[in-house]
Amino acid sequence: MDFQNDDPKTSNTYPLRIQPLRSTNKGYYPTDKIVTISEEEENGKLLGEGNQGSVRICILTYGDPREDQKVAVKQNKRHGGKCAAKKEIEILMKLGEHKHVVGFIGYHFDENDVLQVMELCSKGDLFNVVNNRLISTDPKHALNPHESLYILRQSFSVLEFLHSKRVIHGDLKLENILISRETSTQRGVEHEIKVCDFDKATQLMEGDFASEECGTIIYWAPEIAKCYNYDAEKKIWTKQKVLQYDTKVDIWCVGVMLFIMLIGDYPFKEVDTEKTEPRAIPSFPNNLNRFLHGLLMVDPIERLAVVQCLTMSESGTMEKQEERRKMRRAMVKRVQPRS
Ligand SMILES: Nc1ncnc2c1ncn2[C@@H]1O[C@H](COP(=O)(O)OP(=O)(O)O)[C@@H](O)[C@H]1O
Ligand SMILES: [Mg+2]
After folding, report:
1. Which of 51, 137, 140, 313 shows the greatest Cβ crowding within 10 Å of its Cβ?
2. pLDDT score of 185 more than 90
3. What is the pTM of this model?
4. Is residue 120 lining ligand 1, measured as CB closer than 6 Å?
5. Alpha carbons 294 and 316: distance in angstroms, whole number
């Protein structure tokens, strides 16, 4: 795929022809099937807006209305032939098959825009879920420990996959966690997540460190924040040093997300440059305090690695299973008939 040399053949008006992609075990290849995105029903409904463009609901039609599919289309502006979305699309094409990464369907480009067609996650993003909770519950609380742990486990599963492919997401935050399904249970709502927005992702080539600008200030890991100088008067951050970070920045971001999910606030202020002492952390069950401390370790070397996170979240389950087994054994003893 080469956006810069490709000759744009279509105009910037709907319906748009997009280049659908067929997935094989060797990667994605364009098929000869023409897909149109038509303007009907909810088409055009704005799902979100960022620095680079907007995301809207569209209808993907294969010609047969029975096959019509609602999709999300992210529209990015091309700046003088340069395309910020190119990297994002290339990375998504490689990763879109993980069950917790937003599904990639295809792309389209013309002189002005690049359109990225993705599966539609109809339940919105995690920022809205947490925010709605904070607005609607009294006393105010965000997600409960079970709900938070449910999301945490899926985040670790994505990170293990990304990091094994040497990809750093670089901008994990509640806004970039989409919800594809939610199920109400006695212990709370279980949200199925899909990570999106690979705009700031890095594919590590040689070496283990990246130096591209990444992230959102309030989620910046300390190793990123320390490369910037904050001018409190002008309220601006200026880069002072070359950045050097690795996959551990994603772990930090999951720590920030967990903090917000459980406590309903950010662990640090946007202007904190040190990030050594987060806001007070109350006591939580299921290893959650160990996670909060381990994920928000200032030193990236000491910060939990994704493999440790997975083991810890499994051991939580194992402890619970063992507890249940013990209870069952105790009950069996109690109800056993006496001879
Ligand atoms: N596939 C999708 N399904 C539903 N909503 C989406 C989808 N992709 C993005 N969004 C919404 O649009 C917002 C912006 O999309 P994102 O890819 O994060 O773009 P940006 O780079 O502008 O932040 C997200 O925070 C989310 O609310
Ligand atoms: Mg985003």
Report:
1. 313
2. yes
3. 0.85
4. yes
5. 15
